[in-house]
Design a protein that fits this description.
- Belongs to the SLC26A/SulP transporter (TC 2.A.53) family.
- This is Sulfate transporter.
- Keywords: Cell membrane, Glycoprotein, Membrane, Phosphoprotein, Transmembrane, Transmembrane helix, Transport.
- It is a multi-pass membrane protein.
- The longest helix is centred in the middle third of the chain and has 32 residues, at about 330-365.
- The chain starts with 11 loop residues before the first helix and ends with a helix.
- It contains 27 helices and 11 strands.
- Helices cover about 60% and strands about 5% of the residues.
- It folds into 2 domains: about 35-135 and about 170-500, no CATH class; about 505-570 and about 605-685, Transcription Regulator spoIIAA.
- Helix 6 (about 110-130) packs across helix 7 (about 170-195).
- The protein is mostly helical and about 700 residues long.
Length: about 700
């Protein structure tokens, strides 16, 4: 017999008070440790091995910076903002993560899905404020002022109702919404870090994240089609944006700009071909080809000298001011308008960052601190929001490029930030003539990885049908309804699938493997021997209120005996026998002698004397589960059938003891509970 250890009960109140006293106390050493933990760069930078790391960091930093500039300009289309704000975002995110991040390889900055979520909120608020969402209005003068852009939109909005007293144009209001949204998302992430709420990410399964990314990619693709073919259609808002946008595209397809169509076709062919060649020969290339930068440079030169905007009315990026706009605090009243939208943004940003950080840490054999990652990505949103930046996250594609080009530490992030700074200070105006269709091509080609998930559906279905269904539902909801609702639908549907699987789990009767002490499902394995006079029942799920009825129905069906019906039948039979006995008739209702009636009390179908419940797959019991086991114990005992439990874990045993399953003094516990099925079988055989 195994004896349980006696655990000393701890006073939770005293433990909490001790933790609070320890947390609130302040000593020089604790303060030093706090600063060192909050800024991990202070720990690893003094130990930086310059000769070993520097060249890999410089190379990867330059490559990421070269990739980052065209992507930042392109993703500004998704966010509905001017390209300068995307460059600000990329610059500040790299600097802050260098100081606070614990991953050596993650590339933090502008990310397509996050940009899309920001853009949807910005568009909605612009529409509610009365602005025209047509972003093809004449470009602003580009003097770097946020207050002088009202010329680019006929509607000027007095921001008194939005928390600002000055009159503000479309661009000013758009970046105001974006910075408020970013600030609130960062605050949420910091609060999640303070209260250790990182467990929220556990509810986003791989199927939900993949489905969300694929559905959002379809939305991104749809939003870029109008730039590809050069048509002017209103930016759709609200639910069903994807369908509405495609309807508008086909209605206005006759207005397509031939110059944009030809440019888009050439750019997509060049970009896609270069990506495929890069993937095929990546083991021979020391660093990936800077195809996006080459395409942007060539397209800008062709557009400028060919005067594509003046002659063919091709839409261009417009003026991008140099330098930094003076910092400005996000407006509190705008935060209230976007507080709900910031929550899914914060969760998605954190989940992508931590999952990529853990992937890199596992690959290169080091550890990260998930809570510190939450602080890092939170401050990557809070601080840049004062500098006209919007939400950031780790990006998979750039992280993979970073690791493949020799990155060793986050020094490479500083190098990338310097490349972006160079563009911000000197090179930004050179992109004035860059066609928007070229930026759309860069965005669409970057979606290859997410869109290729459709090819994995058959393999995913073969591995797990339920996960495939979760992926399809999440992807469909994200694409056809909206990204935020799609994420919520995916989470809820994923949980419902888990609940349904625990409500109707596998059940089985077990047979003995010949000449062994092991037992398995007799429907799944051949050559199993049934145990005479004994039924062994397995239930492969926790037993709780939601699956109680299924447990009982499965037990009665597999054992071919419902004790309640059998007990009722016996009572009815005994009642009839008593009536005949009172009349003095020695013949029973069945025409048999009274002495033969005892044979009728136990019908032939009851061919077992003991029921063994295999509890190895029952992880926990609630009150309903304990009462269910007590109910079958009583019902089967009334039929002279003993009920034995086998392979219970300590949690289940404790629940049974607290629920009074073994009686008040636990005296019969040794005759009701066994540590293996074989022990229970041997005990049942020894019973009379």
């Amino acid at each position: 017999l195994l004896e349980r250890k006696t655990h000393v009960k701890t006073n939770r109140k005293e433990v909490m008070l001790a933790k609070m006293r320890n947390s609130c106390s302040c000593t020089p050493q604790k303060l030093k440790n706090f600063v060192m933990d909050f800024f991990p760069v202070l720990q690893w930078l003094p130990k930086y091995q310059c000769k070993e790391y520097i060249w890999g960091d410089i190379m990867s930093g330059l490559v990421i910076g070269i990739i980052l500039v065209p992507q930042a300009i392109a993703y500004s289309l998704l966010a509905g903002l001017k390209p300068i704000y995307s460059l600000y975002t990329s610059f500040f995110a790299n600097i802050i993560y260098f100081l606070m991040g614990t991953s050596r390889h993650v590339s933090v900055g502008i990310f397509s899905l996050i940009s899309l979520m920001v853009g949807q909120v910005v568009d909605r608020e612009l529409l509610l404020a009365g602005f025209d969402l047509n972003d093809d209005a004449p470009p602003a003068l580009g003097d770097g002022s946020l207050q002088n852009d009202s010329q680019s939109n006929t509607t000027a909005f007095n921001l008194t109702i939005g928390g600002m007293n000055a009159e503000c144009g479309k661009e000013c209001y758009a970046i105001g919404i974006a910075t408020a949204l970013t600030f609130v998302a960062g605050v949420y992430q910091v609060l999640m870090g303070i209260f250790h709420l990182g467990f929220v990410s556990m509810y986003l399964s791989e199927s939900v994240l993949d489905g969300f990314a694929t559905g959002a990619s379809l939305t991104i693709l749809t939003a870029q089609v109008k730039y590809l073919i050069g048509i002017k259609i209103p930016r759709s808002q609200g639910h069903g944006m994807l369908v509405i946008t495609w309807i508008n595209i086909f209605r206005n397809i006759s207005q397509a700009n031939l110059c944009d169509v030809i440019t888009s076709a050439i750019c997509i062919i060049v970009l896609a071909t270069a990506k495929e060649l890069g993937d095929r020969y990546k083991h021979k290339l020391k660093f990936p080809l800077p195809t996006e930068l080459v395409v942007i440079v060539v397209a800008t030169l062709v557009s400028h000298y060919g005067k594509l905007n003046e002659i063919y009315a091709s839409s261009v990026s417009g003026a991008i001011p140099t330098g930094f706009i003076p910092p400005k605090a996000p407006h509190f009243n705008l935060m209230l308008r976007v507080a709900v939208d910031a929550l899914p943004l914060a969760v998605i940003s954190f989940v992508f960052t931590v999952s990529l950080s853990e992937m890199c840490a596992k690959k290169y054999a080091y550890t990260i601190r998930a809570n510190q990652e939450m602080f890092a990505v939170g401050f990557c949103n809070i601080i840049p929001s004062f500098f006209h930046s919007f939400a950031t996250s780790a990006a998979l594609a750039k992280t993979l490029v970073k690791t493949s080009t020799g990155c060793q530490t986050q020094v490479s992030g500083v190098i990338s930030a310097m490349v972006v700074l160079l563009v911000l200070l000197f090179l930004a105006p050179l992109f004035y003539s860059l066609q928007k269709c070229v930026l759309a091509c860069i965005i669409i080609v970057s979606l290859r990885g997410a869109l290729r998930k459709f090819r994995d559906v058959p393999a995913r279905y073969h591995v797990n049908k339920v996960d495939t269904l979760v992926w399809v539902v999440t992807m469909s909801a994200s694409a056809l309804i909206s990204t935020e609702i799609g994420l919520l639908v995916g989470i809820v549907f994923s949980m419902l699938c888990i609940i349904v699987r625990t409500q109707q789990p596998r059940t089985a009767l077990l047979g003995q493997i010949q000449d062994t002490s092991f037992y398995e499902d007799d429907l799944e394995y051949e050559n199993l021997s049934p145990v005479p006079k004994i039924k062994i029942f397995r239930f492969e799920a926790p037993l709780y209120y939601a699956n109680r009825n299924y447990f009982l129905k499965s037990l009665y069906r597999l054992t071919n005996l419902d004790p309640n019906l059998e007990a009722a039948r016996r009572k009815k039979y005994e009642k009839k026998e008593k009536q005949h006995a009172q009349k003095g008739d020695r013949t029973t209702a069945n025409g048999l002698d009274i002495r033969e009636t005892t044979l009728q009390l136990v019908p032939e179908k009851i061919n077992f004397q003991a029921l063994i419940v295999d509890c190895s797959s029952i992880s926990f019991l609630d009150t309903t589960g304990v009462n269910t086991l007590k109910e079958i114990l009583k019902d089967y005992r009334d039929l002279n059938i003993s009920v034995l439990l086998a392979c219970c874990n300590p949690s289940v045993i404790d629940s049974l003891q607290r629920g009074g399953y073994f009686g008040k003094d636990f005296g019969s516990m040794q005759e009701m509970l066994f540590y293996s099925i074989h022990n229970a079988v041997q005990f049942a055989k020894d019973q009379k």
